[in-house]
Specification:
The chain has 11 helices and 30 strands. The protein starts with 7 loop residues before the first strand and ends in a 5-residue tail after the last strand. It is α/β, with parallel strands linked by helices and about 475 residues long. It has a 6-stranded antiparallel β-sheet with strand order 20-21-22-29-24-27, with no helix packed on it. A 5-stranded mixed β-barrel has the order 6-9-7-8-12. A 4-stranded mixed β-sheet has the order 14-16-18-19, with helices on one face. Helix 3 packs across helix 7 and helix 6 crosses helix 7. The chain has 3 domains: about 270 residues, Spore Coat Polysaccharide Biosynthesis Protein SpsA, Chain A, CATH 3.90.550; about 60 residues, no CATH class; about 100 residues, Jelly Rolls (Sandwich), CATH 2.60.120.10.
Length: about 475
Amino acid sequence: MADMLRIHPVVLCGGSGTRLWPLSRALYPKQLLALASERTLFQDAVLRTADGDRFAPPIVVGNEEHRFLLTEQLREIGVQPDALVVEPVGRNTAPAAAVAALLLSRDGADAQMLLMPADHVIRDPQAFRDAVARALGASRAGRLVSFGIAPTCPHTGYGYIHAGRALADFPGCHPITRFVEKPDAATTEALVASGEYLWNSGIFLFSAARYLAELERREPAIVEACRRALATAKRDLSFLRLGVEAFTASPSNSIDYAVMEHAVGSVVVPVRMGWSDVGSWSALWEISTKDGTGNATQGSVVAVDVANSLLRSDGPAIAAVGLRDVVLVATKDAVLAVSRSRAEDVREVVDQLRARGGVEHVSHTVVHRPWGSYETTDHGHRFRVKRLVVNPGQKLSLQMHHHRAEHWVVVQGTAKVERDGETILLAENESAYIPIGTRHRLENPGRIPLYLVEVQTGAYLEEDDIVRFDDVYGR
């Protein structure tokens, strides 16, 4: 139910962050990574509005494939969302915001919505909250509010907003007179030099009713598709699953293109809050802590005569000698080397990986599941070795394999194994064998994570050789 007194944060968690490959992957994108603090970008976004006096619990809109990761990250920071909406497909920000607006409008209230991407960095969250407070009067008066960032350089990767003279009725707010979407280098330099343009942060504040009215005027098909998607939505555990057919039929469009660039009376609030969309490795280098030679390093790194570079390893040790202005990133299964000036072009690498049918752009070696995770540590002809981590109180589906047998060895914790109706408990250093065609389930009944080594043997060892009979996660 909408709260008329408090602002309703809506955290948008779509996007794959292809320009931060190999750290960001389709199944584990940048918003779920800890890039700028000990928390993930998504967690930091949620906690920016954790003030219960001014802000209601958030509505989170995310991808179906990320739903359990979002739930776990919310649990880690102790936040219970108002709703966790699952999109069956990505349709950009305008439909996602429409779903949230429709949810908040169900009881007839005209709630104030604060739209925030989950993958941005804001170094000064108090400055952000102060800017929201300045914008609230205009939003309550029916204005659509954007938040603009004073440019620090002529950046061609951002959209620009021309801000008019400050409004007397709404201190701190300026009328928007023009949008410029990602201009070329020459135009960007002119816009920044004028001192009249701001970066478009992609953060918005407006009433649910005003947004829906503007969207219905410009893109009625989006509103209709979102209404049908909510009408056919299903509750699944803690998720609200939008109707697949209805939401898929929605046109894909952004809030900027669908609404903001056409709305009469929209305003922008300039704010200095240490903002970055972390849209590339170069952007991450800019906001990172650096040493005396301008290097930002993380992990096992040796740098000799290296300057103004980002060096990061989440896997093997990396060594660099005599380099300037580069990005060198290593994960367990991939290495990226790119000039900082070409960091925006990493998406082309992802496109080529996708075209050749590889998996390096999709997932890391560690694959997350609602019950925990697994990592393939070795594989060859007719065998595969995995390390499994099952979280406390979680269990895998009751399942069977047609083509493979499995051997489980408990390394830490206690395993509860169901095998063709028989239930056994395994302690550390004990093992179980699951023959081909056997119904089985693995569970962690303990209070600490369960670590196992799984050895698969057989003619076919891919993940689609699973027949599920029962699954608490609804898969």
